[in-house]
Design a protein that fits this description.
This protein is α/β, with parallel strands linked by helices. Helices cover 35% and strands 21% of the residues. The chain is built from 12 helices and 19 strands. The chain has helices at 16-19, 41-50, 66-76, 88-97, 112-120, 147-158, 182-193, 205-215, 227-237, 251-255, 311-327, 336-342; strands at residues 22-25, 32-33, 36-37, 54-59, 85-87, 105-109, 124-126, 135-138, 163-165, 171-174, 177-180, 198-199, 220-224, 240-244, 265-267, 281-282, 289-291, 294-299, 302-307. Strands 5-4-1-13-14-15 form a 6-stranded parallel sheet. A 5-stranded parallel sheet has the order 7-6-8-9-12. Strand 18 (294-299) and strand 19 form a beta hairpin. Helix 4 crosses helix 5 (112-120) and helix 4 packs across helix 8. The radius of gyration is 21 Å and the shape is globular. The two termini are 28 Å apart.
Length: 344
């Protein structure tokens, strides 16, 4: 079934780590949250790697360098090297280098990750709009980003300096909850200037290109927790995806997903890499869609789930019913009671 017409999650008789050569893993909300490993992540990744799967870590967070990310992963029990980490800072630095002369100055609104990535491309990071920059780049600067940095970006963009953003994620998960992301800071500059930046990060093609160039993946599987970055990025790149429910996306959002936000597979956490995925099939009666012991259907505009079995199988069946219903042009049905029936 082509991604353009996906109306139900996919199935796989084989474990996903045997089907795909490389897992392109998001970090925040997938491998760790608030700096601590997500439940089951460490042992699942260790088993996948031991089975021959290449693990690459792909993040829209441009704050930290690949070295710093790799050290953090290793400390958590997930051995990694800098070459295993691909950041939106690297993707945007390549994008800028393709459009400005070698050695150009670039005004940086962000952290060390952006500076290192720019130097890797032979560009010179600067801090002021008065330093005659050839470009402005914004990346996540952490919770201590000063308001004056956004003013520097605004001064340069208002003068017509080309503007780039590592990514436009409006939020980022933290140990205390959901915090403003780089996209929120980008919005500040947009409001002040009326400008529109070129964006490199997920879900856009520059990030997918950077990832494939650096990993050499031939059969990649994108693994993420966000529909509008990880899953849409896989859709745009024409590759399969696994959504894990350990981060931003909840079941209700998944049921409402539009076609480009529908993952190939759905699982609770990274243990899903190590197993096959059950098929969702039409009910033998012709009424509804079946996964495991559950049958999902749409009646009078509402999702209905009947049966018994694994919670995730019920969610997969509900996805199939909701996505099929939406594909008919009737919109997403009310899902609250059906999800409550499954314990969500």
């Amino acid at each position: 079934m082509g991604e353009q017409g996906r109306t139900r999650p996919g199935g796989s008789a084989r474990a996903l780590n045997e089907v795909y050569d490389t897992a392109l893993l998001d970090l925040d909300g997938v491998v760790y949250a608030g700096g601590e490993a997500v439940a089951h992540a460490v042992e699942s990744l260790e088993t996948a790697r031991a089975g021959g799967m290449h693990l690459a870590y792909v993040t829209n967070n441009a704050l930290r360098t690949p070295d710093a990310v790799a050290r953090h992963l290793t400390e958590l029990g997930v051995p990694a090297e800098a070459g295993d980490v691909i950041t939106s800072a690297q993707a945007v630095a390549r994008l800028i280098a393709e459009q400005v002369p070698a050695g150009s100055r670039v005004l940086v609104i962000g952290g060390e990750g952006l500076r290192v990535a720019l130097r890797e491309r032979g560009l010179e990071p600067v801090d002021s709009a008065d330093d005659d920059p050839a470009a402005v780049v914004q990346g996540y600067g952490g919770p201590e980003l000063a308001w004056g940095r956004l003013a520097e970006a605004s001064y340069a963009v208002a003068r017509g300096v080309p503007w780039f953003a590592s990514n436009t994620d409006l939020t980022i998960p933290s140990a205390r909850g959901i915090a403003p992301g780089n996209g929120a800071a980008v919005e500040v500059v947009r409001i002040a200037t009326g400008g529109v930046p070129q964006v490199a990060g997920k879900p856009l093609p520059p990030m997918h290109r950077e990832t494939i160039l650096r990993t050499g993946a031939e059969r990649p599987l994108v693994v993420g927790d966000r529909l509008d970055t990880d899953i849409e990025g896989a859709f745009n790149g024409g590759v399969d995806s696994l959504l894990v429910l350990t981060g931003v996306t909840d079941p209700a959002q998944l049921l409402r997903a539009e076609p480009r936000h529908r993952p190939t597979y759905v699982d609770a956490d990274l243990r899903g890499l190590l197993t096959g995925q059950p098929e969702v099939e039409p009910a033998s009666s012709g009424d509804g869609l079946v996964c495991g012991g559950w049958t999902a259907s749409v009646r009078d505009g509402a999702l209905v789930i009947e049966g018994d079995g694994q919670q995730l199988d019920g969610l997969r069946a509900l996805c199939a019913a909701a996505w099929t219903h939406a594909a008919d042009g009737a919109g997403s049905p009310e899902a609250g009671k059906a999800l409550a029936r499954l314990g969500w």
